[in-house]
Task: inverse folding
């Protein structure tokens, strides 16, 4: 597969010297569903706006299909955007909103009717042609926004938190639908979200960003199972993150005890972040355990119970299908491959 | 509901006394002679002033169009500025309005006069003198100068509400700035355009001070004509009332036509 978009060393700096993006480099493959994931202010929307052409990077290059497109205005780029709050044209009805891009291209009326009809079918809005967009529900407006962008047959569709304003159930439906559309039309989707679950469900590739830097690029399983640093581990799902050190290969020491692990290649006694997923903490009888703690709280979460356990130097979050008694002393154990060792990230935990 | 009705009573009384009664009085005067008998002569006499009506409509129209052309880009730039700069700029737009209307128009008299500042300056480089004052051009200038803020403000307040992302969406879908302007910004600012036109056109068509001071005797407008019937030498309130009535009818017709271009929920009258 070829790269359709390449970002090379993008830097965005505001007049007051604030750096929004610090050296972003990234390749996006053709027909790929890529998600930029990160907390608000991490630079994900800024990166998307650079691809769309609404913002020029302070330095760095943007390549589209092998050609450098810095300075090319948005209306001359072969990408279309689905905006955060849809940005539909309030003075036009559903049909004219979708036909907007085609009218600019001066396509024949016959072609416009055909392509708009196709889109209305795709997003399930047949019969809504004459409806004013201001009288549509959030979900319907979202569909119009998607159709309005897709009708132009862009090579790349950019989506800026498009489902943020929808309720949970509708969001889930739209996630599946968007993924279906992307696969059916064989398009490249660049999707921005702060919702880690959304990112994991829909994407081929997830780009985790924080503080204007890319933290990790990988498949959803890769990102979840092998987070490269404590930030990613913490942002993707819940984690216990403990300070530790590596006295030797495959041995890690934290909260004053030594455990077997599978990680190698750290310098002797290097301090590291130890990451353990809440569902990977095994509850065992206290008298058989190296590590014990007092159960502080138990909350029912549907599939599992979430327990907070006060250990020696760390409050542990444990997910288990079996509830323990509050105030009970329990033991905790881990399989060696469930203990993830990470280098301390350079900019602390931020 | 009942409480609301009680509260609205003073306003109703006010409106009857100061709006409805005077309107009826104008109509009564327009259709009666001095001894109180019914006539349509006054109204039919208005016909002889057709040329003044045409000139008034033409000059007011010209001033309105110039105001629109000047105010539209200004209001757009203003609405896209950073929020804190918008406040300062708006203040600058409003500032001249704080000065007395007559004073501002007097100032133009001294500027435009045959021995005025403009002609003096032009004389220094060997041009002129030009006849600037007492021309219909000076009247239009006075109208534009005095009523420009009434065009800027409604335009600005509508444009300020246009979502930035809608403009970005247009350019994302292939619009150059020009086509974004005509396909998105103008249609969305239509309510501002119509109310701006009303706010400028209506006072401009009925003004008499501006034409008196800047137009000399030769550029009589409807406003001057009406004033002459009530306060001037040709005292005839019956004819004056008839002229007023016809003017109102004309404005009503023009506004009705204008409303055809407004969205349904933004009708002005």
Result:
């Amino acid at each position: 597969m070829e790269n359709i978009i390449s970002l090379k060393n993008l830097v965005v700096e505001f007049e007051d010297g604030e750096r929004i993006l610090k050296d972003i480099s990234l390749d996006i493959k053709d027909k790929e569903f890529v998600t930029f994931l990160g907390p608000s202010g991490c630079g994900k929307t800024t990166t998307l706006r650079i691809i769309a052409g609404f913002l020029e990077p302070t330095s760095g290059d943007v390549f589209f299909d092998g050609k450098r497109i810095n300075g090319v205005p948005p209306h001359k780029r072969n990408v279309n955007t689905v905006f955060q709050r849809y940005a539909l044209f309030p003075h036009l009805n559903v049909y004219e909103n979708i036909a907007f891009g085609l009218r600019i291209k001066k396509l024949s009326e016959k072609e416009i009717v055909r392509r708009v009809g196709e889109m209305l079918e795709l997003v399930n809005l047949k019969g809504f042609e004459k409806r004013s967009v201001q009288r549509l529900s959030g979900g319907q407006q979202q569909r119009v926004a998607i159709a309005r962008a897709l009708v132009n047959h862009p090579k790349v569709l950019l989506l800026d938190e498009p489902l943020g304003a929808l309720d949970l159930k509708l969001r889930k439906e739209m996630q599946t639908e968007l993924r279906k559309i992307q696969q059916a039309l064989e398009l490249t989707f660049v999707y921005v979200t702060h919702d880690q679950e959304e990112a994991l469900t829909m994407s081929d590739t997830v780009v985790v960003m924080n503080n204007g830097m890319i933290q990790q690029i990988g498949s959803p399983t890769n990102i979840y199972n092998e987070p490269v640093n404590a930030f990613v581990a913490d942002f993707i799902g819940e984690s216990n993150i403990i300070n530790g050190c590596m006295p030797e290969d495959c041995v890690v020491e934290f909260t004053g005890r030594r455990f077997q692990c599978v990680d190698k290649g750290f310098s002797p006694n290097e301090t590291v972040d130890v990451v353990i997923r809440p569902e990977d903490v095994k509850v065992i009888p206290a008298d058989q355990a190296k590590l014990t703690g007092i159960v502080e709280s138990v909350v029912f979460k549907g599939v599992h119970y979430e327990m907070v356990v006060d250990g020696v130097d760390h409050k542990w979050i444990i997910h288990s299908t079996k509830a323990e008694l509050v105030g009970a002393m329990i033991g905790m154990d881990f399989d060696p491959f469930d203990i993830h060792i990470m280098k301390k990230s350079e900019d602390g935990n931020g | 509901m009942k409480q609301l009705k009680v509260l609205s009573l003073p306003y109703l009384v006010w409106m009857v006394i100061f709006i409805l009664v005077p309107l009826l009085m104008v109509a009564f005067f327009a259709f009666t002679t001095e001894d109180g008998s019914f006539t349509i002569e006054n109204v039919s006499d208005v016909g002889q002033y057709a040329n003044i009506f045409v000139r008034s409509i033409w000059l007011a129209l010209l001033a309105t169009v110039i105001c629109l052309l000047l105010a539209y880009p200004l209001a757009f730039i203003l609405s896209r500025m950073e929020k804190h700069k918008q406040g300062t700029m708006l203040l600058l737009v409003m500032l001249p309005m704080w000065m007395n209307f007559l004073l501002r128009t007097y100032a133009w008299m001294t500027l435009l006069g045959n021995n005025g500042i403009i002609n003096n300056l032009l004389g220094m480089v060997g041009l002129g003198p030009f006849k600037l004052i007492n021309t219909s051009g000076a009247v239009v200038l006075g109208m534009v100068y005095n009523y420009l803020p009434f065009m800027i403000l409604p335009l600005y307040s509508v444009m300020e509400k246009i979502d930035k992302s809608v403009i970005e969406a247009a350019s994302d879908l292939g619009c150059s700035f020009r086509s974004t302007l005509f396909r998105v910004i103008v249609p969305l600012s239509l309510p501002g355009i119509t109310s701006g036109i009303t706010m400028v056109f209506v006072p401009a068509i009925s003004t008499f001070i501006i034409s008196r001071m800047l137009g000399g005797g030769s550029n009589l407008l409807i406003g001057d004509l009406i004033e002459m019937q009530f306060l001037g030498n040709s005292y005839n309130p019956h004819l004056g009332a008839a002229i007023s009535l016809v003017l109102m009818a004309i404005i009503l017709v023009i506004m009705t036509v204008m409303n055809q271009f407004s969205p349904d929920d933004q009708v002005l009258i």
